[in-house]
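Hi support team,

I've been running sequence recovery on a batch of backbones for a student project. Most finish fine, but this one hangs at about 90% for roughly twenty minutes before it completes. I'm not sure whether the input is malformed or the queue is just slow. I've pasted the structure tokens below so you can try to reproduce it. Let me know if you need the job ID as well.

Thanks,
M.K.
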């Protein structure tokens, strides 16, 4: 898992920095103007597609770090045994849902590739865009499965984040 986390971080940082670099180049080209700016019409579409891969690529890491939105007031008020059962149910449902979404996205990749759709400025087959949900939901389902099997404890990270936020709020 350590190698997967490192690979995910490198992937996400690389995409984000590439997006920043491309947008910076695009802004400079617009300021300079001329024909150079019109040659960079593809940048906005490229950044938009990269953003899709960035968002879906971060799903697994966000879940593992307890950064997904959740209503935990009722869950945390339960007795320890009931809380453990509820958490296992949440992980099982999350795993099944994420795995199913990854499967649907996988089918969508081949469907859209079969239609022959291509992006307007990049001229890429649009089916490859749907690999982002395949990747993201696969990583998300892996994290739910690992949490269900108690390999990772994603709920303790939520409590740590809450405590850290409270401490930071007091210090300010």
């Amino acid at each position: 898992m350590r190698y997967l986390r490192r690979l995910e971080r490198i992937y996400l940082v690389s995409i984000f920095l590439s997006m920043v670099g491309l947008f910076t180049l695009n802004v400079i080209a617009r300021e300079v103007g001329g024909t150079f700016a019109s040659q960079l019409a593809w940048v906005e579409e490229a950044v938009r597609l990269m953003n899709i891969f960035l968002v879906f690529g971060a799903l697994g890491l966000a879940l593992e770090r307890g950064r997904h939105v959740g209503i935990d007031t009722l869950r945390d008020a339960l007795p320890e045994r009931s809380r453990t059962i509820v958490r296992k149910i949440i992980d099982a449902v999350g795993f099944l849902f994420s795995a199913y979404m990854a499967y649907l996205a996988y089918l969508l990749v081949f469907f859209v590739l079969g239609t022959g759709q291509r992006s307007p400025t990049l001229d890429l087959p649009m089916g490859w865009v749907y690999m982002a949900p395949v990747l993201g939901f696969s990583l998300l389902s892996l994290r739910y499965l690992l949490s269900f099997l108690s390999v990772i404890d994603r709920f303790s990270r939520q409590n740590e984040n809450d405590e850290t936020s409270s401490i930071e709020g007091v210090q300010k």
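--
Follow-up from support: It reproduced on our side and the slowdown came from queue contention, not your input. The radius of gyration is 20 Å. No action needed from you.
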